[in-house]
Amino acid sequence: MLDIIRSADRGFADHGWLKSRHTFSFAGYHNPAMMGFAKLRVVNEDRVEPGQGFGTHPHRDMEIITYVIDGALEHKDSMGNGSVIRPGELQRMTAGTGITHSEFNHSNSERVHFLQIWILPEANNLEPGYEQKLFPAAERSNRWRLVGSRDGRDGSLTIHQDVSLLATLVDAGTELDYAFDGPRRGFLQVVRGSVDIDADTLSAGDAAAMQNHASLVLKAREEAELLLFDMA
User: Fold this and answer.
1) Most CB atoms within 10 A, among 8, 70, 73, 94?
2) Quick check: pTM over 0.90?
3) What separation, in Å, do the N-terminal and C-terminal C-alpha atoms of the chain show?
4) What are the tens digits of pLDDT across the range 79-99?
């Protein structure tokens, strides 16, 4: 079974300095039918104005992944990490027993556009942790590149949950497939461009949630950037 989630159907918040689309219930957006999918709890698409951002705030018992689409995001946390995340880089933060952090647009002239993803961890009260890695475009070109996994294999980020996170950049007209190993759940997020899946066309911001779907076959209508979650 494959369910399409259209970008326009997501929750929307406009705070002036922040414009955010919420795939699942978050903050002031509550939709009982959209409380998450498998262990995926939050997929927010955020656009933050120059020089603005999220002041220091707490998290716990969550795996938080940040994926920058355009611009640069500045990060600081209570573990002593300070960094700037740019396109092609992913950040994983294990909130565990508790952390505080802040996120600001690193630029005073350009907007930053990014995805913030929350995954429920396999256990509570984990030791807080942090990773940030670059995955060059050449490694993601017309192939699925593993960028996050439970065991950190193949140079991917370590996610404390039974999930494999894959990324790709697909050229127009290219067909790409993916086979699930057994009764897994899949969640495809279109970051940019558009792709055809079966009889459906998905564009930037759209997603597809899959259950009991043995394989995924897609074809890019135009150059596309995609994330795929393979989950228990």
Assistant:
1) 73
2) yes
3) 15
4) 999 999 999 999 999 999 999
Tokens representing 145 are 């590149």
pLDDT in tens, 120-135: 999 999 999 999 999 9
Give per-10-residue mean pLDDT for the chain (232 aa).
Answer: 95 98 97 97 98 98 98 98 97 98 98 98 98 98 98 98 98 97 95 95 98 93 98 96
- C-alpha to C-alpha distances, 202 to 128, 150, 171, 181, 221, nearest whole angstrom: 36, 28, 15, 24, 9
Q: Encoding tokens for residue 79? A: 């573990």
The pLDDT score that the predictor gives to residue 77 is: 97
Give the closest residue to 73 by CA, choosing from 59, 98, 53.
53
- Determine how β-strand 194-197 pairs with β-strand 163-170: unpaired
Question: Is-contact 18 46, C-beta < 8 A?
Answer: yes
Q: Is the separation of the CB atoms in 219 and 174 below 8 Å?
A: yes
- What residues form DSSP beta bridges with 44? 22, 116
Indicate the residue type of 169.
Answer: L
